[in-house]
Amino acid sequence: MFDSNRAGLASLYEDGSMLTFEGQKIQGSQNIVAKLTSLPFQQCQHSITTVDCQPSGPAGGMLVFVSGNLQLAGEQHALKFSQVCVPSTSIFVQFR
């Protein structure tokens, strides 16, 4: 969704969600999407190389780590990316 409709990512974040991007901490769904939609490139393609999930906490939570490559239009070399998230229960319900 990041590659084609960044604004559509809003439903994946909550008010308490935090994005750290190049040392800048951004909190809340609206602020995170504003940051993602303001990035200086419009076209990109993610290539995921790893997805690791681990149980987290006594309530049955999950820690998800994703890494891969991000190819920007017109660039020869891909950028590396990694993302760690702790999805809320409401996220799992959305993807059923």
Automatic annotation (TrEMBL):
Keywords: Cytoplasm, Nucleus, Protein transport, Transport. GO terms for cellular component: cytoplasm; nuclear envelope. Its main location: cytoplasm. It is found in: Cytoplasm; Nucleus; Nucleus envelope. InterPro entries: NTF2, NTF2-like_dom_sf, NTF2_dom, Nuclear_transport_factor_2_euk. SUPFAM superfamilies: NTF2-like. PANTHER family: NUCLEAR TRANSPORT FACTOR 2. Facilitates protein transport into the nucleus. Interacts with various nucleoporins and with Ran-GDP. Could be part of a multicomponent system of cytosolic factors that assemble at the pore complex during nuclear import. This is NTF2 domain-containing protein. It comes from Linum tenue.
